[in-house]
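Tutorial, part two.
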Amino acid sequence: MSDEIDWLKKQISNNAERLKLQAEGEAYYYQENTAILERTKTYYNESGNLVEDPYLSNYKLPSGYMNVVVDQKVSYSINNSMVATVGADVKTGTPLNDILGRKWRDDLADVATEASKKGFGVWQIYLDEAGEPKYKNIPPEQVVLCRNGDGEVIKVARVYEGISEDGHVVNKAEIWDKDTVVRYEKETSEEWECVCGATPHLMEVTTYGDVIDDETGKGWGKPPFVIFENNARCKTDLEPIKAHIDAYDFVMSDFANNLEDFQENWWVIKNYNGQNIKEFFENFKMNKAIKVGEDGDVKREQQEIPFEAKQAFGMDIKRDIYEKSMSVDTNNIEGNVTNVQIRSMYAGLDMKATKFERRSTEFLGDLGYFFGYDSDNLYVTYDRNLVINVVEMTTIANQSKGLMSEQTRLSIYPQVEDVQAEMDRMSKDSDPESELL
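Running the prediction step on this input gives:
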């Protein structure tokens, strides 16, 4: 048992850097950008110590680009138009709603969002009271994955904060392998202690009438967790763009600070009756007055704030954020932009979506191991949530009458969601006998 505790402590230690990245992904998603929010304005005092300056403005304006990048990627592919079936073919297969429940798309979007923020998302599998398989979302920061040489997850450690039997807040750990789970607890300053030895994942119960005749433990055959990997290296969506987001936040915040503090000005002081320049600024901030000696004078020389340069720099960083994240700045889609131009803007997002959808399909396929369906019989169709020029599409559809089948032409109309239902309504409207009904 001590070997497994040593393994657990090693995994927790090795996972420290990933936890930091996961925390940053979560924070930036909720516009709590740590770099700008934790920034202080400092100076060296007379003793040579670096101290915080209470008189300089320190606006902190965190941007929300991480939220835009993640939500755009997820909603582009995982939406109400997404269709998944299990069976011999896509048309006759069983809808995934009948297997996973009607909320599976929302839950899939949630775990995909977690994966985007934290590198991977996790569903834990369990049986409900009726013995049916169910899933629940587990925060990825609680999970450490152990893989074999083929990349298959062979052991999962879940570490989290919980309540002990006597009501104390304790650290809890669960180590899951293909057959069993072992549970540990520890107080803040104590060592891990095994509180429940190897326990089977499941219990098969044989009854004779109302009497339990036999109980047999069995395992799932693999740790009961399904992993949604954001990419091959489980990197967060923040990592490629964090430096650019931080630069944007600093530039925009400092621009506000410059307006407040007039840092683009300098002062000419004659016979200054003070000890140092720091005292000058403190007096000016607090009293709006400056004490000078006999024949003294103070003159402020003003320099124009380089508004255009800072604005251009901010726009360049913003463009880099969208390019590096392969996202679309929808603010550029305005006016009479053609659908060809829109498709060009979405080229990067389309490439990213192709990889993302492959990960999503793989996740749903892995889920089949626990829910009793074969991933080879899983068919998933993604209907990407693309911005279009509705007027242009309607014009094309109107001009195509007689040049293609009515069914194909109706499918072009953005307003038509169900082509067959629309054709049935049109047939009814054109039927003279229907007017007599």
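Residues 388-393 have pLDDT under 50 and may be disordered. In part three we will examine how such features are distributed along the chain.
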